[in-house]
Amino acid sequence: MISRPIATLVLITLVMSLEVRAQEKSGEAEKFFESKVRPLLVERCHKCHTGTMSKGGLRLDSREGLLKGGETGPAIVAGKPDESRLMKAVRHQDGLAMPPNGKLSEAQITSLAEWIKAGAVWPGSMTTVAAVAAPPLSSIVATSPNDGELAKSLQLWLRADSLTLGDGEPVPVWPDQSGHGRDVSATKGVRVGGVGLPAKFVRESSLLKRSGVRFDVNTGLASSPDRPIDVRGDAALTIMLVMNLQPHEAQPPYDGVIGIGNPAWPSDPGRPLAALVQINRGEDHALHFAGGWNHDASLGSGSFKSHYGKPILLTITKQPGAMRSTTRMFLNGVLAGRDGAPAYEGRDGVPDIQHRTDIGAYLGKALSWCGSIQGDLGEVLVYNRALSDAERLNVECHLADKFGLPFKPLQDATPRAVFTEDEKNFWAYQPVKDVAPPSVKNEAWVKTPIDRFVIRALEDETKAARGIGFQPVK
Ligand code: HEC
Are 361 and 156 in contact (CB under 8 A)? Predict the structure, then answer.
């Protein structure tokens, strides 16, 4: 397996050269389409595949129509003729035979395949090859959370791999690596009203065996109120978490992963006073960026349910302005929201983040009103600005590398291998079959089942006739 930095480099080089070539190539590709493909589609397919009466629900008069496809799915996969239903149809494979009134010539079929292979360029259409390779994907470079400019806005940096403890040892203090000295510590007996017990260091945690800090429902860590995170009022911020949480039943009925500010205001202040990553169990485990008193940006009912028990990278960015409409949540590098659109739920108040006098930043069950968490935290980052997409992706890439997490933006951009039928039939790729060991004449020589295959071959008369005999050692 190639390491991620090399893979990233290969990808960047690939994308850069694609972009440079895309311009000169697009002229050629358009010419090819206009001379070989469009006339063919018009002549042989449009009769039945345009307008509202399109056969099989398939329109063949726009790139969008082809990508959307018909009743059985997309008609083309750009770049992959062999996976494209349209090619199967014109090659008369998989029970489809298009056009129904006589097969296309081999030259025409080859033209269609070439066109799809080159990205199915369709002049005037938005999604051409160059657009597929658009930044910022092309520029993702794994970047340490405190690299260059990032260091200036890094407010809190907890990393499990900075702890030099033995497996299973308690973590009374988790030192902050941001340079601001905001170490978080157990709160019981340390902070006024503190109930939080120490966490536990786990060398091979549920974060793909990387080290982690394990929380149970009684664990609560908080930093000193004397060093509040520099996020106040209507400030921007970014929170990144590498974690693997388990559901639990402890009260109150929400999980408080990390919080700053004051969600426990005695009555509704009319606007968010906190920034808190919270999972509301009462709403079927909804993921909230909570401000207290339901002034939230919520991903909605059930939104965290499928993420329990899995190592995930959660990033939340917020610009100044109303809570719901300026918050963005990303899971494993991908914008989270209904159908990928950040249409979050919640009351859209402009935050006025106010620091508490008893604790600073808090994780888990630090005070009695805090929500417990159960599971492993690997890394916790807080910045006092909303990172740009490029910065965010770079740091996310670093964290994904470090923890071996699935990083969707790069995975989706990396072309998957396409094998020909011949390659697929290569013996080493075939499923393992159980073959019964054959019977042999010289049963006495069999010591292991494998011997049977060897002895049987040696006993084979045709081979014996060719002089490949059987000579037991004397
Ligand atoms: C005479 C009418 C006619 C012509 C011309 C025609 N098709 Fe079709 N096509 C159909 C019908 C009817 C279906 C519905 C499914 C079926 O009958 O298999 C269909 C279905 C398809 C499908 C499958 C759509 C899906 O998702 O189920 C593809 C792909 C397709 N046609 C491609 C083509 C291409 C490419 C051409 C031109 C080279 C073409 N067809 C020309 C009538 C036509």
Answer: yes
